[in-house]
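Hi team,

Filling in the usual template for the complex we talked about on Friday. All components are listed, including any nucleic acid strands or ligand strings, so the model treats them as one assembly.

SUBMITTER: L.P.
PURPOSE: interface mapping
COMPONENTS: two
RESIDUES: 479
SEQUENCES:
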Amino acid sequence: MANYSTSQFKNALKLMLDGNPCSIVNNEIVKPGKGQVFNRVKFKDLITGKTLIKTFKSGDFLEGADVMELDLQYLYNDGSAWNFMDLDSFEQYAIDSTAMSDTKGYLVEQDMCTVTLWNDNPISVIPLNHVILEVLDTDPGLKGDTVGTGGKPATMNTGVVVQVPLFVSIGDKVKVDTRTNEYAGRV
Amino acid sequence: MIRNALIKRQRVIQKIRQFFEQQKVLEVQTLTLLNTPTSDVYIDSISSTVNIDIGMQSTQYLHTSPELEMKKLLAQGSGDIYQVCQVFRDNEYGERNSNEFTLLEYYRLGFDIHQLMDDMVSLLQVLGIKDKVQWFSYAQVFSQYADIDILNTDLDTLKIFAEKLGLSADFSWIEELQMLLFVHLVEPKLKELPLCFIYDYPKSQSALAKVEGQVVHRFELYLDGIEVANGYDELQTKSEYEQVFMHETAKRKQLGKFIPPVDVSFLSKLDNPLPQCAGVAIGINRLLTQIS
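RESULT (copied from the run log):
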């Protein structure tokens, strides 16, 4: 992998830091009045998701991270792995639960996902911003109720629990925002 | 919008002029185009070749600060002086840096840095910055925010410290590592302080300020964590300046940077030493962002 100098640092550049692939979130050039130029860089660790800040002197090099993002279609879960396919090459990827983290509750068969590969291994899966899930279990619905009265928890067919309005019943299909885990409407 | 910004800038500069007029500090204007570039290790001059067509070709340098030209006036008996001017620096670019910016530079005779900091507080109040003032020595901020005894820690120990934090440790000079650790560990914490002076820097960061024991009488002003001003108890004699210039030239050589000729026109004016004085440079563009 190529090395990148501080002068090439820019947002979203993927670099290796402490053995993990990281993405630059913010690159601030700091020039003390009487000193040399430093880059104060905010990174997101692509494996742990944690944010970290490091300071480099101008001219420092970091190793690039072999990170690639692919749009893949989710196929099915075979009990141990989640299986995805590249619709252009028909290549399949089996992803285990470590890379799935919190996203498995939003995976709907046939939906597209953004999968991040590092050295050809999947490290994270990002679902669509909105997915349609089916309510598997919730308290009985109340007629005449509208959105905004607090709501109730509902367990979806994927296992994720979402706060829904009181009128939603078992078997309903609802739209869920995967970024906030919020109810976004009944389908 | 642009008109409001221009009006604000004009008002601030008017208030600065009134402030100095009341204190009988004289406004001066010195040369912008100089025969000698700055020797400051980390500041680069912008050059231009002039008089080619008339057969008197020479290289001139835009001033990076009016410091030496103003000190020539001080050495000749100008008394207290100030200047508001554009300055030019190469290789400065970023969110808070650019190749051209406005400096307010002023010198008060008989002042030490503490008197000058107090004077600056009065100026800032006139300009509408009335936040609680906090003072820290350089050693205090390092102790408080980084748990490092910065004045008594040598280069090798600081390197180990930096490596533990996953930072660059490949430095030849201790001041560079001190600055890196300051930028990384201390400066982000200063964002919580609206108005803060840091004074008594380690002598490795002496610049053109007077050294006393382990420290140099130099200060910086931070507003909401942004470095806005840099002031000194000024060196006075020719030999002190000669030593600093030689030291800076040697460091530039080691870094493979351009080696500027010695500013003989400045040194020749110092046969009479500067009067005891303190001086400060204030970045007006950064200051304006802090004034509502």
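MY TAKE: The longest strand of chain B covers residues 100-109. The two ends of chain B are 14 Å apart (CA to CA).

Thanks, L.
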